[in-house]
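Hey all, quick one. A colleague (J.T.) asked me to put the zinc ion job into the tracker so the inputs and the structure tokens live in one place instead of scattered across chat threads. No bug as far as I know, just bookkeeping. Sequence used:
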Amino acid sequence: MADTLTPRDRSARMARVRHKDTKPEMLIRRGLHARGFRFRLHRKDLPGKPDLTLARYQAVIEVRGCFWHGHEGCGRRPKSREAFWNEKIDGNRARNARNEEQLLAMGWRVLVIWECAMVGPGRLSADELLDRAAAWLEGHANQGVIAGTPPA
Ligand SMILES: [Zn+2]
């Protein structure tokens, strides 16, 4: 197949793909699917296009990178060009909070799974992670958070 993309187009496309189908998100998707949960991805009619929407459980799941979304007490903040990155990260946090508020107001339940639950020294085993997500889905809490063990 002829490759008609310029290197610049290609890297833009790759960046988009990586953004949408990150490895941690794939782990959640595959694991939940294997356990019989059915969901839709990035529903455009919901605030913030949540990563997963499980209508049957009136629930959405957001998988968040700790750096970009400024996970408190975990997300490493950048050391160089600090002001620039912090502004971006704070913007993401504000947007997340707004979307979450809207989803809750619309009657959706919101589970946030942080990347550190899946990647890095404090991560959970895949089974534990999926057990927790499944338990939350089958429970009645409006909000839930799954994260890795923070560094001591
Ligand atoms: Zn984290």
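Adding what we noticed when we looked at it: The chain has one domain: 22-146. Residues 82-105 form the longest helix (24 residues).
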